[in-house]
Amino acid sequence: MPINTIIREKRKELGLTQERIAEYLGVSTPAVNKWEKGSSYPDVTLLPPLARLLQVDMNTLFCFHEELSEQEIESFCKELSQAISESGLDAGFTLLHEKLRAYPRCAPLVHKSALLLDGALIMAGMPADEKGQYTDQIMELYHRAVEDGDEKIRISSAFMLSSKYELRGDYQKAHEMLELVPERLGIDKKQQEASIYMKEGKLDDAARILEHLLQMRLNEIMIILMYLGECAVKKEDHEMAGYAAKAWEKTAETFGLWEYSSQVLKFHTAVLLKDEERAVSLLKRMLFAIRTPWDMKNTVLFRDIAPDISGIDASQKQNSEKKLLSGLMSEMKNNPMYDFLQTNEEFLRIAKRFL
């Protein structure tokens, strides 16, 4: 448990207010609020009296034995990913639960593991009724991260929970979780950081930050256009739905994104409209694109953040491609959204080929 969580929980446990803590230590109430959010920490001279006020020893306040380093967490996540790949989701959850017995309040571990398991569940392509038990466990992990994490982890986990509750149709809970996510400020820290790096002559560092930002913004634009398209279909405004999908295709092509990505919204729109012929045609195009992975090294706008794939051999690439194709087709076979395709002969031939 990080120090900010200890301060918050022990204060509440003792029935103390932030104002009382501030008065006792001779600091401002906003300062205590920042400590509990994890955005700043008490001065070292305040730690002994703070520990006495909270009725804990210094070891408990710092909780040396409950935290893992970022490198240790990354190493475990690789182990977790390998366990899922080789033995399935159950093996992954078992491995994580064993780890959490030793580090039950390590929020970064909980959060990163939840994201990894969440992604693995999406790619598993299993029927909805089988996903439920795993989704419950993943949501529990996100709830733990909301309780124990610093501000960044709490916001990310709350956002993920809002999405999960929305999918379940529990809109009240979805709103409650979303209330924990602050409105985006008009200030972008990373953009300013890149500006500083440029002035310092650290151009490679600036380029990497800006390329990451561009990739994130493009993902946001895709999601916004997807929602606009869904809204348009429900309003029976097919012109707007098609325009949104076409706008994303042009955007993806302009910025040199993956061919698969450029077709996603057109396919999604065809599915919403239950247009069998168009959906199958776009699906074939997407499947072909999967077999031609996006080579970021050969792009103009993203080459500085391209991953190093030099150590990945042909068999590993084929295995990764096979899993992606199988996961996509399994999802389409099991998700009710695609029921209208289940009698289409061409779709069935495609599914049989990749499942």
Characterise this structure.
- The chain is an all-alpha fold and 355 residues long.
- It is 73% helix and 0% strand.
- The chain is built from 18 helices and no strands.
- It starts with a helix and ends with a helix.
Which short descriptors sum up this protein?
mainly alpha
**Largest β-sheet summary:** none
Low-confidence runs (pLDDT<50, min 5 residues)? none
Average pLDDT score: 90
- Give the proportion of residues in helices: over 70%
Instruction: List the helices and strands in order.
Output: HHHHHHHHHHHHHHHHHH
Strand content: under 5%
**Annotation, overall tally of beta strands:** 0
The whole-angstrom Rg is 24 Å
For this structure, the quaternary state is single chain
Can you give me a brief rundown of this structure?
The chain has helices spanning 3-13, 18-25, 29-37, 47-54, 58-62, 70-87, 89-102, 107-124, 128-148, 151-168, 171-178, 189-199, 203-234, 238-254, 259-272, 276-290, 314-334, 345-354. By secondary structure, it is mostly helical.
Walk me through the topology.
Blueprint (H helix, E strand, L loop, with lengths): L2 H11 L4 H8 L3 H9 L9 H8 L3 H5 L7 H18 L1 H14 L4 H18 L3 H21 L2 H18 L2 H8 L10 H11 L3 H32 L3 H17 L4 H14 L3 H15 L23 H21 L10 H10 L1
